[in-house]
Write a structure and sequence with these properties.
Elements (H helix, E strand, L loop, with lengths): L1 E2 L10 E4 L3 E5 L2 E8 L2 E7 L8 H14 L3 E9 H17 L8 E5 L8 E5 L4 H9 L6 E6 L8 H17 L3 E7 L5 H4 L3 H15 L4 E7 L26 E5 L5 H8 L3 H6 L17 H13 L14 H7 L8 H9 L4 H13 L9 E2 L2 E2 L4 E2 L8 H4 L6 E5 L5 H17 L2 E4 L14 E4 L2 E4 L4 H12 L4 E8 L9 E4 L12 E2 L9 E2 L6 E6 L24 H9 L1 E6 L2 H9 L3 E5 L5 H10 L5 E3 L2 H5 L7
Parallel strand pairs: 2-6, 6-7, 8-9, 8-11, 9-10, 11-12, 16-17, 16-18, 18-20, 19-20, 20-21, 21-22, 24-25, 25-26, 26-27
Antiparallel strand pairs: 1-7, 3-4, 4-5, 5-10, 13-14, 15-23
Bound molecules: zinc ion (ZN).
């Protein structure tokens, strides 16, 4: 072992990486390493993979530092890579994690010849297209990582990106490699802001592909300067390399706008540019999210917006920019660039309004008593994740119809009130018994989120009948379907993929409770909480002593506080599980009697660190926690 620092008395906790294993799976190979008790893997059918400890060490360095753990790699690693850990650790301590312990590795000189190929990380965005077409470097292979910007479960979206990758590769006479990885599901990675981690995560894939790849190109983010919150940097990306892998950070001084000017006239870019992370109606770019709108504004300044069929010629662009709640400090410079580049007219006015209402640049992390400050309010998903639900309600007078429900449904409602306020939605609760006068002036009704679409819960089905009978358009907030309910709603949001079978036209959107902002709770004072429902949705047999958590809390605040008291939670109550996740607890969601919990887990909660079990008994089985 070769510790870079011996300042630790008693020693910090470690994030241990076991020696990677390689196995054949179907057409491809998978390299897996156990990292702090959980498997992380990379898989590809397109290229040979290396069982590289450096790959996992690269991917986990920043997450281990964030967690205050000492990264420990089992087995020898490349001496060059090991030496680079010193300046890398110093850089990330200086930026974010001043008290992070040093990694511990065993260096060994490497004599293997490097691979000969140059690979470019490519997901169809402006920066990678710029490197490919104007970067001045020959590119042999385009590499896309499934599971990084698109979730592994989103097979439709991944298939579309893979198609794009293969087509662009064919047109540019390069090869293409798709690597899949579950890295982002690892709890240490999940707890790390992705914008700090993604450069290392990409470099890790270079190490995995090292049998053939000797040089990995990572395109700069287009800010044109080293933003303190962004982890892919010209000063640190190359240090993730080894004796056999060079990692290059391309065009750090070039802004996104300059890149678009250089490549916006290329038909290949016009046909394939993909900037959007959402998946709306199977479109490559949704045309509504912040990133789509920002790109459209840039194309507008460059005079090429009309050549990009994917952006619908910028229809409704100004209204959509006005509907954005705010932009954060990392993204704000792009908008200032737009104004500086001569954006004019109503578009410039809407950008100025957006910059004015947005937060100031993200502050550097500060310390109190040696500890990094934790955020006072915690969110599982940011407000931008709800743009497709909230955006279309902006500027309309909304009447809210409250479903019949329990404290879990009230948690959804609490999150809704926060999100509506962030988006500036003009809304009020409406009582359908109070006659037409109570609805005067309303443009539409929204029916609250939950799990009661279909005919199973009669009172809510009736409530929707009465909402439709008012003649006002009715929008359904993210819901689960128990059976089909094909009625003339204006829009229906479903909160998990399983419900799309009952409602194929539904728009997939997260349960609003995942967008709740809530203060960090005090530490847990109980170990395990096993809480199971006692109603008709109960799946399987109920262990004798388990109680139903909805009977133990009267308000959403009580519910959140009660969940936070437990270090570990096993429950089939979906929103009790969500409450536990908000508190950062170890949560296992147990199946209910229809697809809801299983599908919620697969669609959103797995990525937020939640475990899943088919039954409470399975969740309690010894050895299960390591799974
Ligand atoms: Zn979009």
């Amino acid at each position: 072992m070769w510790p870079f620092s011996t300042a630790w008395r008693g020693g910090p906790r470690t994030a241990r990486i076991d020696a990677p294993r390689i196995h054949v799976r179907g057409d491809g190979r998978r390299v897996t390493a156990r990292v702090a008790g959980r498997d992380v893997w990379f898989e590809s059918a397109d290229a040979p993979l290396a069982g590289s400890g450096e790959a996992f060490g690269t991917a986990l360095l920043i997450p281990a530092m964030r967690a205050g753990r000492s990264l420990t790699v089992d087995g020898p690693v490349c001496a060059t890579w090991a030496t680079n850990l010193g300046p890398l650790t110093a850089a990330f301590r200086d930026l974010w994690y001043p008290d992070a312990p040093a990694p511990r590795v065993t260096p060994e000189p490497r004599a293997t010849p490097p691979g000969s190929a140059t690979a470019l990380c490519f997901s169809g965005g402006v920066d990678a297209f710029h490197t490919l077409l104007a970067g001045g470097r020959p590119v042999d292979t385009l590499v896309y990582v499934a599971g990084y910007d698109v979730k592994l479960a989103d097979s439709g979206r991944l298939a579309a990106v893979e198609r794009l990758l293969r087509e662009v590769a064919a047109s540019s006479h390069s090869g293409s490699v798709v690597v899949s990885s579950n890295l982002r599901r690892h709890p240490l990675v999940r707890a790390t802001p992705w914008r700090r981690e993604f450069g290392a995560a990409l470099a890790a894939v270079g190490h995995v592909l090292a049998p053939e790849v000797g040089r990995l190109l990572i395109s700069s983010d287009g800010l044109g300067f080293e933003h303190p919150e962004v982890g892919s940097r010209p000063s640190t990306d190359p240090l993730f390399g080894s004796a056999t892998l060079a990692v290059e950070h391309v065009a750090p001084g070039t802004t996104r706008l300059e890149k678009l000017r250089a490549i916006g006239g290329d038909p290949l870019v016009q046909r394939h540019l993909r900037v959007c992370w959402h998946n709306v109606d199977g479109k490559t770019n949704c045309g509504r999210c912040e990133k789509c709108l920002r790109t459209m504004l840039m194309l507008d300044v460059c005079g090429t917006l009309g050549h990009f069929p994917g952006f619908d010629h910028g229809r409704h662009l100004i209204e959509a920019v006005d509907a954005l709640p705010e932009v954060d400090g990392v993204v704000a410079p792009f908008y200032r660039d737009l104004l500086a580049a001569g954006l004019t007219g109503p578009a410039a006015a809407s950008v100025r309004r957006l910059v004015d209402r947005s937060v100031a640049e993200a502050p550097r992390p500060r310390r109190r008593g040696g500890q990094p400050l934790r955020p006072a309010r915690h969110r599982l998903l940011g407000p931008e994740a709800f743009a497709h639900v909230c955006g279309p309600l902006v500027g309309r007078k909304v009447g809210y119809v409250r479903p019949v429900g329990n404290v879990g449904d009230h948690l959804i409602e609490l999150a809704m009130t926060q999100l509506f306020s962030i988006y500036g939605i003009d809304w009020s609760p409406v009582n359908l018994d109070a006659g037409p006068r109570a609805r005067e002036g309303l443009d539409l009704l929204v029916f609250g989120g939950g799990g009661n679409m279909g005919t199973r819960y009669e009172c809510n089905h009736d409530l929707r009948s009465r909402a439709l009978a008012t003649g006002l358009p009715v929008v359904i907030l993210p819901q689960s379907f128990t059976t089909a309910e094909d009625r003339p709603f204006e829009r229906v949001h479903v909160r998990e993929r399983g419900s799309l079978a009952w409602c194929p036209s539904g728009i997939l959107a997260p349960d609003l409770a995942l967008g709740l902002a809530w203060p960090e709770p005090p530490p847990a004072d109980r170990e395990l909480g096993l809480y199971l429902r006692r109603d008709q949705e109960r799946g399987g047999r109920r262990p004798l002593l388990a109680r139903d958590p909805v009977r133990l809390a009267a308000t959403p605040a009580d519910y959140l506080a009660f969940a936070a008291r437990h270090r570990r939670i096993i429950t089939d109550r979906l929103h009790f599980a969500v409450a536990g996740l908000h508190a950062g607890r170890d949560v296992t969601l147990v199946a209910n009697d229809y697809h809801k919990n299983r599908s919620m887990h697969e669609t959103w909660l797995a990525d937020l660190g939640c475990r899943f079990a088919e039954s409470a008994a399975a969740a309690l089985r010894p050895g299960r926690r390591a799974a």
